Amino acid sequence: MTMRSCFIFALFGTVLVGCTSTKEDASRYSIDNDIAPDAPLTVDHIEDAHPKYEPYSLGGNTDYTLRGKDYKIIKNTNEFKQQGKASWYGEKFHGHLTSNGEIYDMYSMSAAHKTLPIPSYVKVTNTDNGKSAVVRVNDRGPFHEGRIIDLSYAAAYKLDVVKTGTANVEIEVINIDKPVGEQANKLLPKYIIQVATSKHPERTRTLADELGQKLSVASFLESTEQQHRVFLGPFNDYALTQTTLEQVKMLGYSSAFIKKHTPKLTMSNTIDNE
């Protein structure tokens, strides 16, 4: 069973908080030591994670430093394979946030990895017994020397790792092609950048037009009686959204941030960002 150190990525930021003391652990978790649930699972009822294309999460995909060690998120996962030790985590972390802001479910086929982009789908093979399973990576860890992946309780149970605590494994990323055309428009979430807020409609309209032209992206306004907000987007590609945000901040709008696009916002002008 894993004794991994907990940490939290800010869902829409880059803050990394290490939890190192017993007192901090006690305040965050209802139990001190990680354990398996009382009710055992039946392997026949555990389905592998179903790989599908998913854009990388807003949170949990920034390079980080923990305990003086730097971790760089892998940019290209094509043909990625890795061998090492697998551990698992269970009831102590059940119901708490993962690194990308999802809720950890020990009964799901999920896992934690130190540097794979989130989410990623990974085939895990227990080389001690030949059993394999597919999991979805949505968390960071484990931070023990030699361990390469932290399995959910369900995944560990299916791979017969629960009793031993750790096992020798090989992991292989399953890459899914990005949808194109109409299929992409239906499946992919859109992102927008909120640039500024003002009480003056003319100023915000002018700013939206100027930024849209300067950065060659769509711009629009969201207005109420009291406030007018300037947005850029929507973008289908989160990486492009991040790049545009960096450009916006270089222009002096340091408080700009990324958020999910909501259909109620009305576009004022549109430029294709594909």
Structure report:
This protein is an alpha+beta fold. The protein contains 5 helices and 15 strands. The longest helix is centred in the C-terminal third of the chain and has 15 residues, at 201-215. It starts with 5 loop residues before the first strand and ends in a 5-residue tail after the last strand. 33% of the residues are buried. Mean pLDDT is 80; it is low at 1-32 and 265-274.
Describe the secondary structure blueprint for this structure:
Layout (H helix, E strand, L loop, with lengths): L5 E4 L6 E4 L2 H7 L35 E3 L2 E3 L9 E9 L20 E3 L7 E7 L5 E8 L7 E6 H6 L8 E8 L6 H7 L3 E8 L2 H15 L3 E5 L4 E8 L2 H13 L6 E4 L6 E3 L5
Parallel strand pairs: 5-9, 6-8
Antiparallel strand pairs: 1-2, 3-4, 5-10, 6-9, 7-8, 7-10, 11-13, 11-14, 12-13, 12-15
Q: Count of DSSP helices?
A: 5
Top CATH class of the largest domain: Mainly Beta
Which outline best applies? elongated
CATH architecture of the largest domain: Beta Barrel
| Whole-number total of structural domains | 2
The main sheet orders its strands as: 5-9-6-8-7-10
Task: Give the overall pLDDT as a whole number.
Answer: 80
The sequence of SSEs as H and E is EEHEEEEEEEHEHEHEEHEE
What's the CATH superfamily of the largest domain, by name?
A: RlpA-like domain
According to CATH, the fold-level topology of the largest domain is: Barwin-like endoglucanases
Query: Which range best describes the helical content: under 10%, 10-25%, 25-40%, 40-55%, 55-70% or over 70%?
Result: 10-25%
